[in-house]
Amino acid sequence: MLIRIPGALSLDEVKRARALLASAQFVDGRGTASGAAAEAKRNLQLAQDHPARKELDQMVMAALGRSVMFQEVTFPKSVMPPTYNRYDVGMEYGFHVDAPFVHAGRLRADQSFTLCLTPLADYDGGELIMSDGNTETRLRLDAGELVTYPTTVLHRVAPVTRGSRWAAISWVQSHVQDPHHRKILFELNQVKAYFDKHAPNDPASLNLRNGLYNLVRMWWQS
Question: pLDDT digits over 82-96, tens only?
Answer without folding.
Answer: 999 999 999 999 999
